[in-house]
């Protein structure tokens, strides 16, 4: 630790395991203080050299100097000097409203297309209040979108012309969908997201990436969410109702969307955080009625 505490030290020498220990303690502090990883340039820089390469082991020696050393020292000193005080109480949203969202993106020949479909729901004291008496949809062209009076959103658009990566476009699809909910002033308490990219899902869950472009997109997603919660699950591309919306000229398949709604209802209580002792879920009689009402709504 003296190598990090002394400004005159030109390098830090230790094992990869010891380096991981230092970073792990810093990450614990960041988590407790609710500091987002994507905001930390120092962590982004040091994480690129902190993992042993294929020919190295965790017990092998690593030397950190120059800019990585400055970043490691910055993190170490910052976390050592943070004072732990009682955190301000944050009133999380109740979980009385939610949206079911499916997103997708395609990227070919330096052209990206985005598609997403979403429906919002409100849950009242007496169970589900669907906010929508029918399932009317609209056919949108490749550069337009529509929100009907029942808060059903179906969107497809050319998103980018230029160099990118498919994972960036998958993240961009999520960011654009959440921004749309925010712009329409229908951002719910939590969002259930069906996504067919495990790479994008992992980046969102981790809250960190190795490129500036991905970090900026994660920042957008977090900004649009605000205090709303996000629950994600993987859906195969063949079953993703947003897949056709991300491909110009393909016809949208509404039965895929109905199946997605029925699948998503299984995750409602997990997304709401309804857990009791032993990791088991138990329902009161009222909650059982609510679940049945929700299933009836999705079955229509």
Key features of this structure:
300 residues, two-stranded antiparallel ribbon, 2 domains, Nucleotidyltransferase, domain 5, single chain, alpha+beta, 10 helices, 9 strands, seven-stranded mixed sheet
Summarize the structure in short:
This protein has 300 residues and is of the alpha+beta class.
Task: Describe this entry's structure for a reader.
This protein has 300 residues and is an alpha+beta fold. The protein folds into 2 domains: 2-81, no CATH class; 97-299, Ribonuclease H-like superfamily/Ribonuclease H (Nucleotidyltransferase, domain 5), CATH 3.30.420. The chain contains 10 helices and 9 strands. It has helices at 2-5, 16-32, 41-47, 66-81, 166-183, 198-206, 212-225, 254-264, 268-272, 285-299; strands at 11-15, 61-65, 97-108, 111-124, 127-129, 144-147, 152-161, 190-195, 229-234. Strands 3, 4, 5, 6, 7, 8 and 9 form a 7-stranded mixed beta sheet that branches. A hairpin with a 2-residue loop joins strand 3 (97-108) and strand 4. The longest helix has 18 residues, at 166-183. The model is unreliable at 124-149 and 275-284 (pLDDT under 50).
Write the layout of secondary structure elements.
Blueprint: H1 2-5, E1 11-15, H2 16-32, H3 41-47, E2 61-65, H4 66-81, E3 97-108, E4 111-124, E5 127-129, E6 144-147, E7 152-161, H5 166-183, E8 190-195, H6 198-206, H7 212-225, E9 229-234, H8 254-264, H9 268-272, H10 285-299
Parallel strand pairs: 3-8, 8-9
Antiparallel strand pairs: 1-2, 3-4, 4-5, 4-7, 6-7
């Amino acid at each position: 630790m003296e190598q990090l505490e002394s400004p005159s030290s030109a390098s830090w020498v230790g094992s990869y395991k010891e380096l991981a220990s230092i970073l792990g303690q810093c990450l614990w502090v960041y988590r407790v203080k609710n500091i987002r990883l994507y905001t930390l340039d120092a962590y982004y820089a040091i994480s690129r050299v902190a993992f042993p390469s294929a020919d190295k082991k965790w017990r092998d020696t690593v030397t950190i100097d120059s800019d990585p050393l400055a970043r490691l020292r910055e993190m170490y000193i910052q976390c050592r000097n943070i004072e732990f005080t009682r955190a301000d109480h944050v009133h999380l949203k109740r979980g009385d409203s939610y949206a079911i969202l499916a997103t997708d993106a395609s990227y070919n020949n330096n052209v990206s297309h985005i598609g997403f479909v979403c429906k919002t729901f409100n849950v009242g004291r007496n169970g589900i209040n669907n906010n929508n008496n029918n399932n009317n949809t609209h056919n949108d062209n490749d550069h337009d979108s529509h929100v009907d009076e029942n808060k059903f959103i179906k969107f497809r658009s050319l998103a980018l012309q230029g160099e990118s990566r498919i994972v960036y476009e998958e993240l961009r699809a999520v960011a654009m969908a959440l921004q749309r909910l925010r712009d329409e002033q229908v951002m719910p308490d939590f969002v259930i997201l069906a996504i067919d990219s495990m790479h994008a899902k992992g980046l969102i869950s981790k809250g960190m990436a190795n490129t500036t472009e991905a970090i900026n997109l994660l920042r957008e997603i977090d900004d649009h969410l605000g205090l709303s919660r996000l629950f994600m699950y993987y859906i195969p591309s063949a079953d993703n109702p947003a897949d056709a919306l991300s491909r110009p000229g393909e016809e949208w398949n509404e039965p895929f969307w109905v199946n997605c709604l029925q699948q998503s209802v299984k995750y409602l209580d997990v997304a709401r955080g309804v857990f009791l002792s032993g990791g088991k879920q138990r329902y009161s009689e009222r909650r059982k009625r609510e679940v049945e009402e929700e299933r009836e709504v999705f079955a229509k």
